[in-house]
Amino acid sequence: MSNRLALLALLLPASAVAIPYDWPGSAPCNSTLQACIDGVPNGATVQAATNTPIGEDISIYNRSLTLTAASGFAPSFGPGHWLSVTSSAIAGDLSVSVSRLGFSDGYVYANYYGTGTATYDFEQLTLTRSASDTANYIEVDANAGVVHATLIGNRITAVPGSLNRGLVQLSASGAELDATVYYNQVTNSSAVAVSGAGIFADMHASGAAASGTLKLHGNEVRGGFFRGGIFVSEGLFASMASTIHARVYNNVVVGTDSSSAGTGGTGIAFVANNGSIDAQAINNTVSRSYDGIYAGQWSGGGAGAAISGLVDNNVILAYRGLEFGTLASASNDYNLINATTSSVGYGAHTITAPARLVADAAPRLRATSPAIDAADTTTLGFGLILNGLPVSDADNTRRIKGASGKADIGAYEFGDAAFTHIATADSVSGNVSTIDDASLNGNSGASLVATATFNAGGSVGVDYNHPFGTYYPGPQWALFNQDYTNPMPLGAQFDVFVPAAGGGSFTHTTSVANTAGPATTLDDSSTNNQPDRIVLVTQNWTGTYNPHPVGVYYGGDSHWHVANLDGAAMPVNLLLNVYAQEAGPNAFAVTADSGNTAHGDQIVLHHALLDNTPCARPQVTRVLGAGAAITDGFDIRYSAPHWSIFGYGARGVQLGDSFEVVVDARQVFDCTDRIFADGFQ
Questions:
Q1: For residue 264, what are the CA distances in angstroms to 246, 256, 313, 320, 340?
Q2: pTM
Q3: Is 564 exposed, middle or buried (0-12, 13-18, 19+ CB in 10 A)?
Q4: What span, in angstroms and rounded, lies between the C-alpha atoms of 210 and 234?
Q5: Which residues fall within 8 angstroms of residue 26, CB to CB, at 6 or more apart?
Q6: Which residues pair with 434 in a beta bridge?
Q7: pLDDT one-digit tens code per residue, 174-213
Q8: How does 461-473 read in b/e, with b if 16+ C-beta sit within 10 Å?
Q9: Could you state, in order of their start, the residue ranges of all structural domains in the chain?
């Protein structure tokens, strides 16, 4: 233990945590939420610790503030109530963050009229509508100065209020707006196409030209929108030219109809008036739309209007695949297009063949799709890096993967596999259980990871408190107890994840050079200098046993490490299968706190793809902490409506314990229609 603690002192960075204000709580948060917001110091954090509907309209005026849900709570506003973030004309810099709140027939609105810079961050908000209400949207308006807007992981189900409105509304009026819009789910709640857009962005002059950058990545827009599922506009109702840089990558737009009837709406649209749009529409998937990708001009626009850029690597199922007006000079290539007509010629590498999707309404690739490994990987890779975009696809998995190192056309990257293995009398011999799955049989180079699960699919639970590993005796892989004198329990269950080859999936071998005390240092481009990576690990036996629970941590040396959690010396010549990917909505770290910890032995996971989904297969790895030695293992288990991480032994799960979690959205899609249960269909 002394070696382990010394390593921790050297490698773990220090951190400080500000104390938030709970509402309801002590003064000034002992009455209304508005009084609490008005009474706390500027820059404070307010946590709503209630599950009772909030019957107030909230105004945040000339304040910097964070408003979020307290851990373990799911606060929502009562029907018709809204939240507004505004400023005066003399306001300086402001920073407002709002997250993890629900609204019914209500909206979230933010504008900025000040002289400095406003930073607005809206994440994990849920907005739903009744049968007739149209006031359900998230809107950010830049009316002066500079506005940095971040919208991540929000879910909006509604109908736009009018033709030039969106469920996500972004506007710059004579100001600069830089917007980051990632992984939002936006749904037309009507069964037919409607006016307006799912995501509507417009920059127009108002005394001065507007400008800015739009980064739209990994969003899912469902239902028909006549303006467009994603609609980028320059100069609406303005005669002066403005400039937009639009980076539209890895989004999914699913309309209602791709026939000549025109009732499916437009997929992605770029429309200029007198200024310019520098557009990159890369690796999107558009299906069931009348126009796949449209580029044109507002009626009455000037001769100087221009739309330029790239339209590459998109899967398009539409009546008109690419519809470009005379002002559009964007090049196109490497797209897969199923369309009756297009107004422009296709690039030399365009594929015009059936896309072989799971379904038009569920446009993930099948294993036989010609889109697999057919993208212009160089254009995609440089685009992600130069624009500072996530290196993940619409499912928040690795964007470029596979033995070929080539990306797929469209928003989803194919190749990972996931399944549950159950130890049965036919598979068990001593401490070993042989795996029989097509993704692994004969695949000696696989770098699989696994997580013990108590009751996969809601089955009868079997305890499994053993350090374990995997190995390849050929032609099949196997799972085994590292404490090999103990037999593999019949009925033991493991969720197995088989990442496709490529960056982020590798095998690490411990050596004298990279191992000290209980830990070994990883050295890979997917993890080095990447403190925010989500890292999973599973032991891989090639002759060296390590009968100890293992975990990961990021050290002060800018490297990730794998450690024996009980402090035992890490042996050399031990193989470790490692999976690393960018964090996001489906890949995250969770820490036990007073709100999410139950019974002293488990962390309750709250996640849209896990809740009410017993067939989900999350992957989990423990993070090494600074506390006492951990001698027991953990598993994941389902008790409706949530999954939990359960810690064995007297220690269980303690406050401050952290785990890395990956939720495979494709696996959830394959096992259930839960991914569409909230109307995303």
A1: 24, 4, 22, 11, 14
A2: 0.94
A3: buried
A4: 9
A5: none
A6: 478
A7: 999 999 999 999 999 999 999 999 999 999 999 999 999 9
A8: bbebbbbbbbbbe
A9: 163-415, 417-498, 505-581, 587-676
